[in-house]
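I wish you would study the pair of lines that follows with an eye to the fold:

===
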Amino acid sequence: MTTATAGPAPDSDLAAPLRTTSDVLHRVDLLLGEPARQLRSIVLLFLDGEGRQLPVVVPIDDLPERPDPLLIGNLCWTIGEALTQYPGGSAVVVLTRPAAGQVSDADRCWARNISRSARERGAPIRMLCLATSSGVFRLTPDEAG
């Protein structure tokens, strides 16, 4: 099950808290334009305990098609460490890749591995998303894990 961006243009006020799934998807859509969606990357957004986006976006480019366990373990460790000073904070993890379309088997594999590692390492992930030229989609628990 995926939830895609739809409806009016996202609020461009980056200080506005992200309260709903739609808020998160629209923010990702706003921040990651078409050029960013042509790369095989992971992009991290960090939120404070009130759901406000922190002023940093971390792209990790040149990912392999299939997940690397060491990379994912380090990613989840970094998320946990980065949020220690923000009680109740969380991360939004966005997979980007070239090629239109919704969720692929490779996307599901990345999502499952990230979800598993996040649970093991206590990394607070608010949402996993996929951004392609077709739109921004939420990777749901069925797909992620």
